[in-house]
Amino acid sequence: DGTTIFLGYVKIGKNCKISKTIIDKNAHIGDNVQINVNGNSYEDGDHGNFYCADGIIVIKKGAIVPSGTII
Known about the structure:
Blueprint: E1 4-7, E2 10-12, E3 17-18, E4 21-24, E5 27-29, E6 34-35, E7 45-46, E8 50-53, E9 56-59, E10 64-65
Parallel strand pairs: 1-4, 2-5, 3-6, 4-9, 5-10
Antiparallel strand pairs: 7-8, 8-9
């Protein structure tokens, strides 16, 4: 299931594709961002603006994900 959870105020840009993701409060996601939809896999742990746990991407509190980013 492609559930996404928002934890407080979050700004999401246009044309984004987001799946199996938790986005913490005050995060800003730019336009045309793809998160967890293109088959990339990450080891569990910290990856800068996000971390991964059991295939779920967690965007950190206050993170800024620039337009066009693919995670």
